[in-house]
Design a protein that fits this description.
Strand order of the largest sheet: 6-4-3-2-1-5-10
Structural class: alpha+beta
């Protein structure tokens, strides 16, 4: 009797589970809003000429045509050239601002930067909640960390959109940027600003190759991701993130292509110059040219070392060690001031040459990639050091 009772109850339990499952499957799918009562769009701004604008900008546009409302919500920070390195190091604060869309577009049109709108395929409730959430955040001011990777204008907008999606999430499939390490990602998004990448890499040395971020976005890398991203609902149904094709609101007028004289080209020319100086020095001809060139090189090296120390020790003190301080420091200048008349001074060139060789071998392993501009500078310095050591040893 007990076995029969358990069988009956077991069959009843199975029947209840099947009915519950069918009820869940019968839930209507999430339907995106097809009306234009409220529209939510992501605005992607093309790169600018300033160092902090070479990767573009991103904002949210919220419209309610029936009430004549049209505003852009944008995450900003009090950033300029002086604070650029602190922005790269994550030591600035950002916050949400709102401006009328006409003014927003007019300002970027004056700069010659393009603006493209990507209308999102959200439900009406999600768009209303998004607008309400944006309005509530406005009074908070600059309160969020603002940096290059984890908290920038793009990631903040992405997080804001996700926060209002009820049991839904967005996925981007087969996206190359999310498979790159931080250094290659930075180089990728700064392909139109190679000097920005070079200076930030040299002065801050902040991009580590061992950190990976799952959802990593930046304005110049966002367009491709948006066009293939999908929204997945709790019941498993999917729909495209974008409601329609991208719309060009402002045409780009400035040339954002990489400059002809990139850091690599510039330092190849430097190496050619150093080779010419070394040949003249070895042959004992055009010695005025050799002396003037050496003084220019030594002065430029010292100024770069002072700038590097100012950034690493003063502006970014205690935040991270900059390995570039090993080949670029003021020790050669101090030794030249104090001991250039000593007989052993020529060995300074030899020792410093060994330091350069060691650092040239170490740098590609540390950064995970070959950075030719820095390597070319090191080769140029190494060539002059060994040349001076050999010739001064012969003279003595």
């Amino acid at each position: 009797m007990l076995i029969l009772w358990l069988r009956q109850r077991g069959c009843l339990l199975v029947l209840m589970l099947v009915l519950m499952q069918q009820q869940d499957l019968a839930q209507p799918p999430v339907v995106a809003d097809s009306t234009d009562f409220v529209t939510a769009s992501i605005l992607v701004v093309s790169p600018g000429r300033e160092p902090y604008a070479t990767a573009g900008h991103c904002a949210l546009r919220m419209e309610c045509p029936s009430h004549g409302l049209d505003y852009c919500f944008t995450y900003e920070t009090d950033i300029n050239e002086d604070l650029f390195l602190r922005f790269l190091s994550g030591k600035t604060q950002g916050g949400l601002y709102v401006v009328p869309t006409t003014r927003y577009l007019r300002d970027y049109s004056r700069e010659g930067r393009g603006v493209t709108a990507y209308a999102m395929n959200l439900t009406l409730q999600e768009k209303k909640e998004l607008w309400r959430s944006l309005d509530e955040e406005l009074p908070l001011g600059l309160y969020k960390p603002f940096d290059f990777f984890r908290h920038n204008c793009t990631t903040m907008i992405y997080e804001k959109v996700l926060s209002v999606m009820n049991e839904e999430y967005v996925v981007g499939r087969d996206y190359q940027v999310n498979r790159e390490d931080n250094r290659r990602f930075f180089q990728m998004v700064q392909r139109e600003g190679p000097w920005t990448f070079f200076l930030a890499s040299l002065l801050a040395d902040y991009v580590r190759p061992d950190v990976h971020i799952v959802e990593r976005q930046y304005p110049v890398s966002l367009a491709r991701w948006l066009q293939q991203a999908e929204i997945i609902s709790a019941n498993g149904t999917t729909r495209h993130l974008l409601q329609s094709e991208p719309k060009k609101l402002v045409k780009e007028r400035i040339d954002s292509s990489p400059p002809f004289v990139t850091p690599t080209v510039a330092f190849i020319l430097l190496l050619v110059w150093v080779i010419a100086v070394s040949v003249c020095h070895g042959l004992g001809v055009a010695m005025t040219f050799v002396r003037v060139s050496d003084r220019i090189l030594f002065l430029a090296y010292t100024l770069l070392a002072l700038l590097l120390m100012d950034v690493a020790i003063v502006k970014l003190f205690g935040e991270r060690w900059n390995w570039m301080l090993i080949p670029f420091n003021v020790i050669p200048f101090l030794l030249w001031i104090l001991a250039r008349h000593q007989r052993w001074y020529r060995y300074v060139w030899f020792v410093y040459g060994l330091v350069l060789i060691s650092f040239m071998v170490f740098l590609p392993f540390y950064r995970g990639m070959m950075e030719w501009p820095v390597e070319l500078i090191l080769v140029s310095l190494l060539l002059r050091c060994l040349c001076k050591f050999r010739l001064e040893s012969c003279y003595n």
